[in-house]
Design brief:
Elements: H1 26-42, E1 46-48, E2 58-61, E3 75-85, E4 89-94, E5 104-109, E6 111-117, E7 123-129, H2 131-143, H3 154-184
Antiparallel strand pairs: 1-2, 2-3, 3-6, 4-5, 6-7
The chain binds nickel (II) ion.
Length: 186
């Protein structure tokens, strides 16, 4: 397993529409294993394949969020389709590993039902409520190139872009200064 870099907005790849998974092979298992490790490291509730640069219709949801026990393995959803969203809604702060440090209130269905395949290509259905339902809707958006920033108005959108630019610039500067400091310190 390996941790893969998570693409950040405004990386244009995040806007791609992901394609249907057809090969349930070792490469797919490796990708999912890497995604699980990457999500745990980043402390995320979910991760779509496109966020690590693989434009495939697949996402994972953290095991506990997906209704399992604390520390349960991530639940895998391949070629997922939302088949039902409740009329009852929920509004809550939503984050995304591709928008570090950004949380915005997003209205979602309280419950969502999804049909997907597992790593062996078997079809299953799952129903989520609350945070699990939110994750199912958020991750499905990723597969269609739809992002957290599309959920807010133009003013807030500019603020988010500015903050991410500033954070990225600060990180670049820190990275540039680090080797110099090491050299100076011997
Ligand atoms: Ni996300």
């Amino acid at each position: 397993m390996a941790i893969r870099p998570i693409l950040r907005f405004p990386d244009p790849k995040l806007r791609q529409r992901s394609v249907t998974v057809t090969d349930f092979d070792d490469g797919l298992r490796q990708l999912v294993a890497d995604m699980a490790e990457t999500m745990v490291e980043a402390e995320g509730a979910g991760l779509a394949a496109i966020q690590v640069g693989a434009p495939m219709r697949l996402f994972i949801v953290e095991g506990h969020v997906a209704g399992g026990a604390e520390g349960a393995p991530a639940k895998v959803f391949i070629n997922p389709e939302i088949v039902d969203i409740s009329d009852e809604a929920q509004t809550g702060d939503e984050g995304c590993l591709s928008f570090p440090g950004i949380f915005v209130p997003v209205k979602r269905g309280m419950r969502a039902r999804v049909r997907a395949m597992d790593l062996d290509g078997n079809t299953f259905e799952a129903e989520g409520e609350g945070l699990f339902a939110r994750a199912l809707q958020h991750e499905t958006d990723h597969l269609n190139g739809r992002l957290l920033i599309d959920q807010v108005g133009p003013v807030k959108r500019e603020l988010i872009k500015r903050k991410l630019r500033k954070d990225a610039e600060a990180e670049r500067q820190e990275a540039a200064e680090r080797p110099a400091a090491r050299a100076a310190g011997g």
